[in-house]
Specification:
With about 375 residues, this protein is α+β, with helices and mostly antiparallel strands. It is built from eight helices and 18 strands. The protein has helices spanning about 30-35, 85-90, 95-100, 125-165, 285-295, 300-305, 320, 330-370, and strands spanning about 10, 15, 20, 25-30, 45-50, 55, 65, 70-75, 185-190, 195, 215, 240, 245-250, 250-255, 270-275, 275-280, 315, 325-330. Mean pLDDT is about 85; it is low at about 220-230. Its EC number is 3.1.21.-.
């Protein structure tokens, strides 16, 4: 919701997201300035469109807002065309193709607002348009509801990462699970397990029918758990193999995105690595705990990031982090924390899949219900 005490929301292209007007990060103008910019006043059922082609629908809560010069308003004749119906056409595959082929420019594509009038829109009776528009509006609201659940869970996880692990100059976290009271013990990465160096892969070694599986460093950035791909080697030449509960570090990364993984859900018994080194934890160390602590805790991640070498492409080597310290509780508390975050990640993934499923349902309906 807009804060009326700030003035009138003044929208830019960045406020158009997935067919909606997003107030976050918006600028505000005075009522006096708003009254002078008459052509930019929004009314219910308007569609706001940017020169880049992004769209936003105006509902009751957006009434009276204003837009900058990079945006335009599509205001329909309600006797002929319902705005909610037009919006769904424009975000459908057919509508997007119509807008895409009217874009100009090479490196930076833009959509001349004047050409939109030439887009042919298949319409039905206004009464049916209303029904279709309301159906998709309700579906959009359901998608938004699940997206907010994802965002809420991600915020909970971020807070837990800050409170379930010790912060700077502390030897215990702010929040503890019941029956755990001992101080955490300082240790070094070189003492938590055995280091396994990875090999170097060349494109000549790639083979989609290869039988030797490999984990590439680029696969470690988006997942804690992953599926090992069946594309790798004609020959088994990389040496060290990783197994479940190993902790994997990409050797090429960015300073602000140190990434590592404990393959706790790895389906395969073993795999080789390229551009990756691994630490195989000792029996008193839970690899997933180390992963969550190092990857998810801002303070701990920055301790390792300062050891990265290079500018455009930085590299993280075992030798540069092996003497960095990490605070570790007893194994029982490690497992408790690891189990908590694993369940939280699964819940986040479940909600994300619901969002994707609803989006796929909407896409299928758009293709079937619009000519």
């Amino acid at each position: 919701m807009a804060d009326s005490s700030k003035g009138i929301p003044f929208l830019t292209g960045g406020n158009l997201k997935e067919g909606k007007l997003d107030i976050s990060g918006a600028s505000y103008i005075t009522k006096e300035k708003h009254e002078k910019l008459i052509s930019g006043h929004l009314v219910e059922d308007d569609i706001v469109i940017a020169v880049r082609g992004s769209l936003g629908y105006v509902n009751k809560g957006n009434f009276g807002w204003n837009i900058n010069s990079q945006l335009a308003i599509l205001r329909t004749d309600k006797k002929e065309l319902y705005g909610k119906f037009l919006l769904q056409f424009l975000i459908s595959d057919m509508g997007q193709n119509e807008l895409l082929k009217r874009q100009t420019g090479s490196a930076l594509k833009q959509l001349p607002i004047g050409v939109i009038k030439d887009v042919e829109v298949p319409i039905t009776l206004v009464e049916e348009q209303t029904k279709i528009g309301e159906l998709f509006a309700n579906l959009d609201n359901l998608i938004t509801l699940h997206q907010r659940k994802v965002e809420k869970l991600q915020k909970i996880k971020k807070s837990c990462l800050q409170n379930l692990f010790p912060q700077n100059n502390q030897n215990t976290p702010k929040i503890r699970f019941k029956n755990f009271n001992d101080e955490w013990v300082e240790n070094k990465y070189k003492n938590i397990g055995q280091c396994l160096s990875g090999g170097t892969l060349s494109y000549e070694d790639l083979d989609k029918n290869g039988i030797y599986k490999c984990i590439l460093y680029g696969e470690l950035y988006t997942r804690y758990d992953y599926i090992i791909k069946n594309i790798v080697f004609r020959t088994n030449k990389l040496g060290n193999k990783v197994i479940k509960n190993d902790i994997l570090f990409p050797q090429s990364t960015t300073v602000d995105a140190i990434s590592l993984i404990s393959p706790a859900c790895m389906n395969d018994d073993e795999a080789q690595t390229s551009g990756v080194f691994a630490i195989r934890p000792h029996k008193n160390i839970d690899g997933n705990f180390i992963t969550y602590y190092t990857k998810g805790n801002f303070y701990q991640r920055n301790k390792l990031a300062k050891n990265a070498q290079g500018l455009t492409i930085v590299h993280l080597y075992y030798q540069s982090i092996k003497d960095e310290t990490i605070l570790i509780p007893n194994l029982a508390e490690q497992c408790k924390i690891s189990e908590f975050f694993t369940k939280l990640d699964k819940l986040i993934t479940l909600q994300q899949r619901k969002v994707e499923k609803l989006k796929n349902i909407k896409k299928a309906l758009l293709n079937k219900m619009l000519i």
